């Protein structure tokens, strides 16, 4: 192989590695963004579950009150 061929092979290998590196970086950036979105969604889900749990506890308390009232009315 002459010097020109070696130079072209080196340049091609360099371009392939740069494109590969850019692809990895892009995926890492997208992955980080998805992780942030998942974390936000998990926090929102936790908040909603806490709210529903409080509502269920209140409903349970009211149901117990109604049962006592109905029992007393008998």
Task: Walk me through what this model shows.
The chain is built from one helix and no strands. It is mainly α and 74 residues long.
Layout of helices and strands:
Elements: H1 3-73
Question: In one word, what is the shape?
Answer: rod-shaped
**Strand content range:** under 5%
- In this structure, how is the largest beta sheet organized? none
Q: Got a strand count?
A: 0
Q: Detail the poorly predicted runs.
A: none
In whole angstroms, how far apart are the ends?
104 Å
Mean pLDDT: 87
Radius of gyration using CA atoms only: 32 Å
Tell me roughly what share of residues is in helical segments. over 70%
Number of helices: 1
Report the structural category: mainly alpha
Helix-strand pattern? H
Summarize it:
By secondary structure, the protein is mainly α. The protein has one helix spanning 3-73.
Key features?
mainly alpha
